[in-house]
Amino acid sequence: MPHDPAFQPHDHSRCRDSVMASARRIAEGEGLRLTPIRLRVLEILAESHRPLGAYDVLERLAEEGHPRQPPLAYRALDFLCANGLAHRINRLNAFTACRAPGQVHVPSFLICRACGRVAEAAAPAVARAVERLAGDEGFVPDPVGVEALGLCPLCATGEAGEAGAPEAAAEGRA
Amino acid sequence: MPHDPAFQPHDHSRCRDSVMASARRIAEGEGLRLTPIRLRVLEILAESHRPLGAYDVLERLAEEGHPRQPPLAYRALDFLCANGLAHRINRLNAFTACRAPGQVHVPSFLICRACGRVAEAAAPAVARAVERLAGDEGFVPDPVGVEALGLCPLCATGEAGEAGAPEAAAEGRA
DNA sequence: AAGATTCACGATATGATATAACATGTCAAC
DNA sequence: GTTGACATGTTATATCATATCGTGAATCTT
Q1: Tens-place pLDDT, residues A117-156
Q2: Fewer CB within 10 Å of terminal CB in chain A, N or C?
Q3: Distance of CA A118 to the CA centre of its chain
Q4: What is the pTM of this model?
Q5: Which of B109, B93, B45 lies closest to A91 in space, CA to CA?
Q6: Is the CB of B93 under 7 A from strand C?
Q7: Gap from A39 CA to D27 C1', in Å?
Q8: Are A1 and A44 in contact (CB under 8 A)?
Q9: Residue B106 distance to chain A (closest CA, Å)
Q10: A–B: how many Cβ contacts below 8 A?
């Protein structure tokens, strides 16, 4: 049972640092321009295992002295998503840092509807199942991920209280 | 190769009628109140194989003399979705009539990014793959469907022109 | 180094999607 | 015929996203 760190207590600063290090490495390799704002936005996303809305990100930026203008956040988020450093979760209109940049290209998400945390996983079996389904219809699918709502291990067992884990209040959108 | 009707030329009035008949049957069976507005909204959705935004629906209602107030559309859409007569496609912020009400409870969608048409299919293999993935994490998923973007048979082969099928202009959002 | 090019960012405005809140109407049960 | 449940009317606002144009900094070219 390889519990995803997102659903276990752990040291956030470590996974944030790991995300940032990967991002820098990848940006270097691909010649991406990781400007201060883009870096900071990625860091903001990486500091939480809960997806953040564009306006949540904007709010943080504003607190740090940036102008409170939506394009500021959307541009950075679009850039990060386009380059595989972050993902958009349509179901939530929200964004999350990619936890395995450069590796997982078609992420699936497990979204806890109680505490809001999200785990990212490669799900080749899901993609295969979709391709089989699509093939029957003559449909040619782009790479497919899935956004699965449900209960994370902590909330399912009530260990952490379903209303939200201790870190909930401090960590982004409820 | 059981091509989905959504991706083949066919008589829309027939599938609309079939959807409406099923809806009435189900509503009767479950004691749902299919009011005129709800019926009309379902019919509007059923007349197209392209999903419609809430404001598209609202526009049609307005043309028919209803007030142009968002809650009018959202209430009907929410009702239809809650009772399995329509589905929301998060990826598009749009709605589509359920093509198999009472049968498919966890629909997957094949969304053509060229012509905008959407086919609905049961995809138990997808759900199983997600459940397996989730199980590894101790995550308990709600029933899962997938919203797969790609090219439908017509657009993939260029048979119908990728800019949109003949019916495109007449039928809802581009 | 000067000029050209590219692209990130600043700034304003607006568009698109969705819901809160409260009032009114309708119908059926009792 | 009153009550209660629920659908709808109405106003206002919240939330999410993009168009557009100007400015400035970095890089490229010569």
Answers
A1: 999 998 899 999 999 999 989 999 998 899 999 999 999 8
A2: N
A3: 7
A4: 0.90
A5: B93
A6: yes
A7: 21
A8: no
A9: 12
A10: 132
